[in-house]
Structure formats: C-alpha cells, structure tokens
Design goal:
- The complex is a heterodimer of chains A (about 270) and B (about 425).
- Chain A is about 80% helix and about 0% strand.
- With about 270 residues, chain A is an all-alpha fold.
- Chain A has one domain (about 5-265): ABC transporter involved in vitamin B12 uptake, BtuC (Orthogonal Bundle), CATH 1.10.3470.
- In chain A, helix 1 packs antiparallel against helix 12 (about 215-240).
- In chain A, about 50% of the residues are buried.
- With about 425 residues, chain B is of the alpha/beta class.
- In chain B, strands 5-6-7-3-8-9 form a six-stranded mixed sheet, with helices on both faces. In chain B, strands 2-1-4 form a three-stranded antiparallel sheet, with helices on one face.
- Classes of the chains: A mainly alpha (about 270), B alpha/beta (about 425).
- The interface between A and B is medium-sized, with 35 and 34 residues.
Chain lengths: ~270, ~425
C-alpha cells in the first residue's frame, strides 16, 4: 500500500464513518415518525443546491444546506393538510420535482455534468481533509442538537399533546430536527450522494430495531451498524472495485437482513 | 380556591373551521369537571387549547403561574418501530426518581408491568400507565381525554373510582372529556356540555349516595348517574332538520354567544316547532338492566331522555332548559317530577361550580323532586307519562297519553304535544359512534 493510497483511504474512512454515525441521530426519528419521504425530498433537493453552488461559486455545503432548509420549510408549510393531498403524495411531488429540476440545472453546467454521478451517488474516495473536517464538525453539531432535545423529541414522538402539556414545544423541536436533517444532507452529499442519503438514515435504524428494547439502545445499535457499514462498504469497494457509496448502503442492507434473521432465530421479544 | 386555568371568550379555528366559539371555561383546584359532547363538538380542541397545543383565534387563556399539567391522552401514536417500555415511558419528558416511580406504580397497582413494552399492555394497564406518567409530574390539574375509550364498563367505573380517590388523596383537579354521557362519573363536581359553544353547565346529582340506590345496586355502582342542568334559556330556530351536531353548530355560528333569547322559560316559542320548549323539564330515562343496546335505542326514541344530551344538542338537548337524568347501568331513576308540588323551589339557572343539588339527594327516597331548576308549575310532562314513554320507548307517545290526560292541566298537555312532536327527529339526530 503506497502512502498516497493509504491517505485517501483514511480520508474516505473518516468521512464515511463520520456521516454514518451521525445519520442515526436523525434516522431513528425518521423511522419512528415515518419521515422517510421527508428525508427523500430534502435529499433530492440537494442536487439543486449543488447546481446553485457551482453557479454562484459557493462551497457545495452552503448551497446544499441552504436548498435543503428551503425544501424542508416548503414541505412543512404544505404539510398541514390544506393542499388536499396526502403527505406522502405531496412529498412525492416535491421530492421528484426537486430531483428533476436539479438534474436540469446541473446539465447546464458543463463541468458539473461530468460529475453528475458523483452528486447522485457520492464520491467518497475524492474527499479532501477539509471535507473530513467539515463532516466531523457537522456531526458534532447534529449530535449536540438532537442530544440536547432528546427527551423532548421522544415525548413529542410518543404524543405531541403530551409534550405540549409538559410545557414543551413540539413544533420548535420538529424545526430543530428539520434543520439538523438539512445539515446532514449537506454533509452526506459528497459521501453517498443525493439518492442514497435516505438509505443511511433509514437502514441502520431499521436494522437496529429488533436488537433494541429502548430508544437509546436503538440509537446506539444504529450508530454501530452505520459505522460498520461505512467501513465494510469501503473494503468491499476496494476488493471488488465497486462504487463506494452504493457499497456502503449494500453492507447496511446486509446488516438489516442479518439483524432480522438473528432476531427471528433468537426470538428476541420485540419491545 | 385557586383558579388553575381560565378561558374567556375562547374561539379556536382548526383547519379552516371554527371549532370553538366564545367558550368561557374555568377550573379551580381540586375540582372534577367533565366535558361531554358529541363527536366533533370541540372537546379535544378545547383540551388542546388549554394545554397550549392550539392557539386561540380569539379570547384569552390564563394559566396559574407554574401550573403543572398531567395529561392522559386518548391513545399514543406509538409506531411499532419505537421501542418503549413502561418504565422508560414514565421517564418522559423528565426522568422520574426510582422511588417515586415505584410509589406511583404501586398506588395504581401496576408495579409489575414496569419492564413490559408499552405496546403489549391491556386496555386497563395501558390507561394506568398513561395515568402514572401524568401523576409523576405532580400535577395540579389532570386532563383525561376520553381516557376510558375501549375499556369495558367495569373497567371504566374502576378507573373513574381511582380518579376520584386520587383527587381525594392529592387534591388534584381533574378535567375529563367524554363523548358519552354514560361514562360521566358521578363524582364530577361540574359537567359541561360542549358543542362548539358551551351548551350548558352544571352539577351532576350524586344519586348513589341515596340509600335506596345502594340497596338496589350495591355500593359498587361507581356509576355515571348525572344530572344535567341546562342553564341556557336561549332559543334557536329549529326549522331546519338537525341531522348532525355540526349542522347545529353551523346554524348557530353566526349567533356567536349572543343567542336570540326567547321570552324566557315557560313561554314557549313558535321557533321550537321540533323541540321541547324551554319550559319543559326533560323526563327520566329508565333503562333495562344490562340491556345497553335497548337502552341506547330507547333513549334515542323517547323525548327528553339522555339521547338529547349525548346526541349533542344535535337537537334540543343543547339549547333548552331541561334536566336530564340518565339511568346508567340499568339503574332505574325515579322521575324528578314524581311530586312536582314538593320540588324545592327553583334556583334559576344552574350556577356553575357549585354542587348545589347534592343536598337534595336524600329527598329522592321520599319521592320528592331534586329538581330546582326553573319554575315548577311549568315543569313539564307529568311523571306517569314519562315513565310510560321511557318504558316503551318505541311505543305510542301520543300527547293524550294517560298521564297527560289524567293529570295535566291544559298547558302541560300542550307541552306534552311539543315533546311528542320531536320524537321522530331524535333518532335521526343520534350521531354515529355515540351509542354505547
């Protein structure tokens, strides 16, 4: 292994693990609150953010986070039922609308067009040390944001009225969750790409479910599964020369299948 | 008495509809208040406004400083992917002291389920777990939103007995919501009938304190025998058929709280074509023991029986002065008008918050009427007629029924005609889902 090779593998591993251990903080709520479509819509909008960043010569993180926040706010505004559409249909419209418009926008940028695959599926082997720094800084912000509102978020997830009557404000906490999600999308776009961000949110949390009897255990298990998937995916990618982002997701899916099978065999009582 | 929450002129719009209009509400320390009303009458909206989940579109809500609420929701929207044991649930949103937690679990008799998943509990255990969580906040006010839904009658009665005990032990005020008159507990200090606005409000009669009721039903009937006193004396135009509560609500929406008032009790009004005039005391519901289905039907079809109340005011129940004596669990309730001459003199409309009628309970056994509402001479259909009606709900309730013909003066007969005129309407207006 040459020094250069080791260096980019280390950066890839650090970036991948950084995103993979951050996603479950939001992923558990995405699963508990059935927000997978919401995650999709926010993530797909990221492509538009990429195009915008390149046009305006901004850092990709800034454009993606900005567009993701706007998307999240639009969804929240339309979600109150006045649109006459179910939330899932509405999110389907917004999610794929954002993706299509993002693809068109990117196609007008000659340089970006060449890199389309990188934006859709990530290019973890191309991350720089500054990317790694941004990812881990963002990871800490997200963990602190969610961790500090953990009890309140759990209460509101169980029943929003419980939270209100306890003097909490579930609306504000949901906005915190939404902002954190937009931030995560920005962090993850270079690692797994716009199309696979939701996979990092949902799959490790879902894989952790049969192994957990408490919300905290589920978060911990999801983080462990996420980290294992990131490293395992990189190794797989190196061994069989597969694209890195999809390899990470594939390993997490294998973990999901394994946890279901193991839970079935051990008959772990589902809590 | 400490005022815990006070709402004045509360109006709430929810998803584009005026759900509550000009509601005045207050609850004091140690009170048990029950809000009844049909589905869609704004009960939950009122609760959400009081807890702060919904913002009023008009009016004010004042809470006591540092008010501690204990909220018991109807159900949890617990996704199966959410692993939550009872003991972890009790730690939401604040971690409970282990000792305190065990004490509450012991008190509610559910110590053994602490490690069980919340989703695997039976209805009664589940409701107690929710209650335990609420109690751990050391609340000054417990809010129970249809807490006994899905529980059988025995379970509901036990649960309400528990609530009453807790109030006695801790002095916690209790605000309960029900869409069903039959689960209104007898321990309520005050009952509020809600249908977009406060239709009526007053103290339920604690009849089970009467010795003859204990003799008949034992001491275990922690029942829901309540007296409703409709304190409104306004009238509405009932020409349009009332098919559901919302229709009623919408029709009155433009009135706001300033309803057109009739000339007062006893004068009747042409606008009450399809309803009992304000001068009528509602008759008594007599129900067959253990025959709930029949009970519901009978109620729906006999005039002035609890159906009027539980159907909400879908019809006259919400608008007129009459008292309703629901018989619950097959309790036979004697007519309040057995000897109208002996009825205590009227106190006018019910004064909210004061259990003014409790003292008259012992009079029951002497056949006296506990009714203190309105002027007695106007007090409606003679008892015999009522009893016939109630016993044969589907039968002919002709105005010239024996009771009316035999005992009534002319104006009473007219009153009885009015009552019978609404009979065909009542069953239609019985809202779906409100049958026990």
């Amino acid at each position: 292994m040459s020094g250069l090779f080791a260096d980019f593998m280390i950066r890839a591993a650090l970036a991948g693990v950084g995103v993979a251990v951050t996603a479950p903080w939001l992923g558990v709520f995405v699963v508990w609150r059935r927000m997978a479509y919401f995650g999709d819509a926010t993530a797909h909008a990221a492509l538009l953010g990429v195009a915008l960043s390149l046009m305006l010569h901004l850092p990709v993180y800034v454009g993606v986070a900005g567009i993701a926040v706007i998307m999240a706010l639009v969804v929240a505004a339309l979600e109150d039922g006045r649109s006459g559409l179910g939330t899932d249909s509405l999110l389907g419209v917004l999610s794929h609308g954002a993706l299509a418009i993002g693809l068109i926008a990117v196609s007008f940028l000659p340089g970006a067009r060449l890199n389309l695959e990188a934006f859709l599926f990530g290019d973890i082997l191309a991350v720089s040390w500054s990317d790694v720094a941004v990812i881990w800084a963002g990871a800490i912000v997200i963990a602190v944001l969610v961790g500090s509102r953990w009890q309140a978020l759990l209460t509101a997830t169980v029943n929003p009225d419980l939270a209100w009557s306890s003097g909490l404000n579930p609306d504000r906490d949901r906005r915190i969750l939404t902002l954190a999600l937009a931030l995560l999308v920005a962090l993850a776009i270079k690692v797994v790409g716009a199309l696979l961000i939701t996979a990092l949110l949902v799959i490790p949390a879902a894989a952790a479910r049969p192994l957990s009897r408490s919300p905290e255990a589920m978060l911990g298990a999801a983080i462990a599964i996420g980290a294992f998937s990131a490293l395992g995916g990189l190794v797989l990618s190196y061994r069989i020369d597969s694209p890195a982002g999809p390899s990470v997701v594939a390993v997490s899916v294998a973990c999901f299948a394994l946890s279901r099978v193991v839970a079935g065999f051990l008959s772990i009582r589902r809590v | 008495m400490t005022r815990l929450i006070e709402a004045r002129g509360l109006s709430v719009r929810y998803q584009g509809a005026d759900v509550l209009q000009h509601v005045d509400f207050q609850i004091d320390g140690g009170e048990i208040v029950t809000v009844v009303g049909p589905n869609g009458s704004g009960k939950s909206t009122l609760m959400k406004s009081l807890t702060g989940a919904l913002q009023p579109s008009a009016g004010t809500i004042a809470r006591a400083d540092g008010l501690r609420l204990g909220y018991v929701p109807q159900k949890l929207s617990l996704d199966p992917t959410f692993p939550l044991t009872v003991s972890r649930f009790l730690d939401l949103p604040r971690r409970a002291e282990r000792q305190e937690r065990d004490r509450v679990l012991d008190r509610l008799g559910i110590r053994g389920i602490a490690t069980r998943p919340l989703s695997g509990l039976s209805g009664g255990q589940y409701q107690r777990a929710l209650l335990a969580r609420a109690l751990l906040a050391r609340p000054q006010l417990l809010i129970l939103d249809e807490a006994t839904q899905g529980m059988d009658q025995r379970g509901s009665a036990d649960f309400y007995a528990l609530i009453a005990d807790l109030r006695a032990e801790t002095g916690v005020a209790v605000l309960m919501v029900s869409h069903d008159l039959h689960v209104v507990m007898s321990a309520s200090d005050r009952v509020i009938c809600l249908n977009g606005h406060v239709c009526c409000e007053g103290s339920p009669e604690i009849v089970r304190s009467a010795p003859e009721y204990r003799a008949l039903f034992g001491t275990g009937t922690h029942g829901a025998l309540a007296l409703y006193r409709h304190s409104h004396d306004h009238s509405h135009d009932h020409d349009a058929g009332h098919h559901n509560a919302h229709e009623h609500f919408r029709e009155h929406a433009p009135h706001g709280s300033e309803h057109a008032h009739s000339g007062g009790p006893g004068r009747g009004s042409v606008s009450h074509r399809a309803g009992i005039g304000p001068d009528l005391q509602a008759p008594v519901a007599e129900t067959d023991v253990g025959n709930l289905g029949k009970k519901a039907r009978g109620i729906g079809e006999s005039p002035g029986t609890p159906a009027l109340m539980s159907s909400g005011a879908a019809h006259t129940g919400c608008d007129h002065d009459h008292d309703i004596y629901p018989g619950r669990d097959g309790q036979r309730v004697p007519s309040p008008h057995t000897r109208q001459g002996d009825a205590p003199t009227g106190k006018g409309t019910a004064t909210e918050g004061s259990p003014s009628l409790t003292s008259s309970a012992p009079d029951y056994e002497h056949g006296k009427s506990p009714v203190t509402d309105q002027a007695v001479p106007d007090a409606g259909i003679p008892s015999v007629a009522h009893r016939d009606d109630a016993l044969h709900p589907a039968g002919d309730v002709h105005p010239a029924s024996p009771g009316a013909a035999g005992n009534a003066a002319g104006d009473r007969a007219r009153a009885a005609r009015k009552a019978s005129a609404k009979i065909p309407v009542a069953p239609r207006s019985f809202p779906e889902g409100s049958e026990p």
